[in-house]
């Protein structure tokens, strides 16, 4: 409990410092991603221990932590829209009426309610009948007015989105490829539904109004949806971009939107056409599924014919083995494509695919390559009886009437993507150029069947160079990085194995205890492990469980044949920094990055932490006269601020 309390204090100080510099000094000492990760860690510790310090950012005024998001029933059900890909259908639908054509934004639909000029509630669409209350989070959207001049009751709908430009900035702050967010919509959905709105505030969510549901009266809209949106705009709401259209100019306006979609900073997956005449639209009522006053338009897919070359079988981390069509390259929506997922066996059988068939391909929503049809339908592709990765048996299963193929081997490498990605990460074996996506491709192509195969990728030179995103230079950089990784420290190797609860610091403690003799490390007993400061029963048990597993021992043996473990044990007389705690800030000159400097400090017996506290002995900052928050804190606590040069002199 004592160690956890110290960690809570450390996190509270660090997060408060970050919050102060961000909100009061208009600068950042850590990325949003780093802040979110530390904040979640603090919440977990507070929940686990029941201790919440009075200055914890989790109870700061202006932010609120919820245990769950309550659900409420919508006053009016939120139906989905009927869809078409034909402009002619839109023209027939609008007829002699005037319409409002706007972007169909790709985010999360939100219902806002105002009472007495103040935001009263915000609710997600949910399942259309029930939504989640996210009022607390909506208050920190970038552009929602909390107070408006209209004094009556007001209900409106709009879309919460994260702009592409903001999404790219958020992802740019994340070094770990596997930790990057997949797309703006998923990130927006998760951000809107956070239990703590301080995290929501950092995600830069915007709200765009697209529909006025109701008011308590007193406003004249002259029976026009367009006038309703303009009125909302005058109240301070951003509205979705739209154009008034008629049957005569509808095609021209659709073309305008299609030409501008690539320049649009706001995610969109189509258009929405609504009758401008409010009374006419309302008089049409609804079907069981759709309102009759609006219709969605999806872009017409560009379709190309090509020849099917082969079916690849790609094993995934869930054990599912998906068929992938490989065909002669074609141009689609401005890019060259040569592969498309078939998703499952049922689809493959329905298409009656055979090698050499002439198929039609397109990009769903102008993004994801798909097979539209098979024109020749020559036959049936043989379903593999063994997994392409581990060569163990496969099994066909029925899931909701759909045939899918699974690998039945629990130890299949494809099911261990996370462990592979961890193995090659910077603080482990540091193999650059091996992202999670790249590893997944290598596994799918049969290049990796065990961890040791990473050291023999040169056998697949031609295949790798031909892969999308690779070339001769990328291949050479990859092989060079792998060869460099053959020389590593016992601690990094131990950490790379991904043993539960054993981080790099714990790995260093264990290896230090056994003087970096890895044979002794792997054969350590429980009693010896528990004598190591910082190694408790949970870590010791996880360590023993890993090395007592026969498969794991084989994996380690195979890896040891490929690498050379460096002698990193330091004699006691060389532990010049023993017992000293350092904090590193600012740019470095003599060391390539902070991890390298941290490693030197730890090798000399020192410790590195993230924030300046009373327990800090030295702050390393080349700009030791700056007014940074860490420098100020160090001066307040009378902690020496030293440069790299002074640190290097200290070690001599």
Short description:
The protein has 24 helices and 24 strands. Mean pLDDT is 84; it is low at 22-27 and 60-67.
Provide structural commentary.
- β17 and β18 form a beta hairpin.
- With 652 residues, this protein is α+β, with helices and mostly antiparallel strands.
- It has 24 helices and 24 strands.
- It folds into six domains: 2-59, Helix Hairpins, CATH 1.10.287.610; 77-297, DNA ligase/mRNA capping enzyme (D-amino Acid Aminotransferase, Chain A, domain 1), CATH 3.30.470.30; 304-407, Nucleic acid-binding proteins (OB fold (Dihydrolipoamide Acetyltransferase, E2P), Beta Barrel); 413-485, DNA polymerase, domain 1 (Orthogonal Bundle); 488-565, DNA polymerase, domain 1 (Orthogonal Bundle), CATH 1.10.150; 572-651, Rossmann fold, CATH 3.40.50.10190.
- α1 (2-23) packs antiparallel against α2 and α16 packs across α17.
- Residues 22-27 and 60-67 have low confidence and may be disordered.
- Strands 12, 13, 14, 15, 16, 17 and 18 form a seven-stranded antiparallel sheet that branches. Strands 2-11-10-3-9 form a five-stranded mixed sheet.
Task: Name its key features.
Helix Hairpins, alpha+beta, five-stranded mixed beta sheet, seven-stranded antiparallel beta sheet, OB fold (Dihydrolipoamide Acetyltransferase, E2P), 24 helices, D-amino Acid Aminotransferase, Chain A, domain 1, single chain
């Amino acid at each position: 409990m004592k160690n956890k309390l110290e960690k809570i204090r450390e996190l509270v100080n660090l997060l408060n410092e970050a919050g102060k510099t961000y909100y009061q000094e208009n600068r950042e000492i850590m990325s949003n991603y780093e802040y979110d990760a530390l904040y979640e860690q603090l919440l977990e510790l507070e929940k686990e221990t029941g201790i919440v310090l009075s200055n914890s950012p989790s109870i700061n005024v202006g932010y609120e932590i919820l245990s769950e998001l309550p659900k409420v029933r919508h006053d009016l059900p939120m139906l989905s829209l009927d869809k078409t890909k034909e402009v002619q259908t839109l023209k027939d639908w609008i007829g002699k009426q005037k319409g409002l054509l706007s972007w169909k934004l790709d985010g999360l639909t939100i219902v806002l309610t105002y009472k007495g000029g103040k935001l009263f509630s915000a609710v997600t669409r949910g399942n259309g009948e029930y939504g989640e209350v996210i009022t607390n989070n909506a208050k920190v959207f970038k552009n929602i007015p909390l107070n408006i001049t209209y004094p009556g009751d007001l209900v409106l709908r709009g879309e919460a989105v994260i702009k592409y430009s903001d999404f790219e900035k958020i992802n740019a702050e994340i070094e770990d490829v596997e930790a990057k967010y997949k797309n703006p919509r998923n990130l927006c959905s998760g951000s809107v539904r956070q239990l703590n709105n301080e995290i929501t505030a950092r995600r830069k969510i915007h709200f765009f109004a697209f529909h006025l549901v109701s008011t308590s009266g007193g406003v004249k809209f002259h029976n026009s949806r367009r006038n309703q949106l303009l009125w909302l705009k005058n109240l301070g709401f951003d509205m979705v971009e739209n154009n008034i259209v008629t049957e005569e100019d509808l095609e021209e306006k659709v073309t305008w939107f299609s030409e501008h979609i690539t320049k649009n900073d706001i995610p969109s997956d189509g258009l929405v056409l609504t009758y401008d005449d409010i009374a006419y639209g309302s008089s049409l009522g609804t079907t069981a599924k759709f309102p009759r006053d609006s219709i969605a338009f999806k872009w017409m897919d560009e379709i190309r014919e090509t020849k099917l070359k082969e079916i690849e079988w790609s094993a995934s981390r869930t054990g599912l083995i998906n068929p992938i069509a490989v065909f002669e390259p074609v141009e689609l929506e401005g890019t060259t494509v040569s592969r498309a997922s078939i998703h499952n066996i049922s689809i493959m059988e329905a298409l009656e695919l055979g090698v050499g068939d002439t198929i039609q391909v397109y990009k769903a929503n102008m993004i994801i390559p798909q097979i539209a049809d098979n024109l020749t339908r020559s036959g049936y592709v043989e379903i593999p009886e063994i997994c392409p990765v581990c060569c163990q048996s496969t099994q066909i299963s029925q899931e909701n009437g759909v045939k899918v193929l699974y690998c039945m081997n629990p130890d299949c490498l494809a099911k261990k993507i996370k462990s592979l990605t961890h193995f090659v990460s910077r603080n482990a074996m540091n193999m650059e150029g091996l992202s999670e996506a790249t590893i997944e491709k290598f596994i799918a192509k049969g290049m990796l069947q065990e961890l040791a195969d990473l050291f023999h990728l040169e056998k697949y030179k031609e295949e790798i160079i031909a892969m999308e995103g690779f070339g001769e230079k990328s291949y050479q950089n990859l092989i060079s990085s792998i060869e460099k990784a053959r020389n590593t420290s016992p601690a990094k190797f131990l950490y790379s194995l991904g043993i539960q609860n054993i981080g790099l610091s714990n790995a260093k403690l264990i290896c230090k205890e056994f003087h970096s003799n890895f044979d002794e490390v792997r054969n350590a007993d429980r009693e010896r492990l528990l004598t190591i400061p910082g190694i408790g029963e949970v870590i010791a048990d996880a360590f023993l469980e890993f090395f007592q597993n026969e498969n794991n021992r084989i994996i380690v043996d195979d890896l040891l044949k490929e690498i050379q473990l460096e002698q990193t044990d330091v004699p006691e007389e060389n532990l010049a920094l023993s017992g000293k705690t350092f904090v590193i800030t600012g740019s470095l000159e003599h060391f390539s990055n902070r991890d390298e400097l941290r490693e030197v400090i730890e090798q000399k017996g020192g410790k590195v932490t993230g924030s300046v506290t009373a327990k800090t002995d030295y702050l390393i900052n080349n700009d030791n006269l700056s007014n940074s928050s860490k420098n100020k804190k160090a001066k307040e606590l009378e902690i020496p601020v030293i440069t790299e040069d002074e640190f290097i002199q200290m070690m001599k």
